[in-house]
Design goal:
Layout (H helix, E strand, L loop, with lengths): L1 H35 L2 E2 L5 E10 L2 E13 L6 E8 L2 E7 L2
Length: about 100
């Protein structure tokens, strides 16, 4: 019975942590696009990969999100943002 409660709490923590990381990824991608004069499309990011990664604070979840942006035309480009824990760590744009 206790293991069920523990699994439920772990699942809830993972869900809330994932939502916080996603919000940070959206904010990071939107900020980068504004700074570079790009259009952040669809106002969202999509989870591409999740794994354990090392950071200054030790082992943390590392999530890679994909997002789309446009310069001025109708061609969509992809960008990637890596969030370690709940902090954006790296952003890459394709051109």
């Amino acid at each position: 019975m206790i293991w069920l409660l523990g699994a439920t709490l772990l699942g809830m923590w993972f869900w809330f942590d994932s939502m916080r990381a996603r919000e940070r990824a959206i904010l990071g991608a939107k900020t980068l696009c504004e700074r570079e004069g790009l259009q952040f499309l669809d106002d969202t990011v999509a989870l591409k990969r999740i794994r354990l990664g090392m950071s200054a604070g030790g082992v943390r979840l590392q999530r890679t999100y994909r997002f789309e942006y446009a310069t001025t035309g109708s061609i969509r480009y992809q960008g990637y943002i890596v969030v370690v824990g709940s902090e954006p760590a790296h952003v890459a744009l394709e051109m």
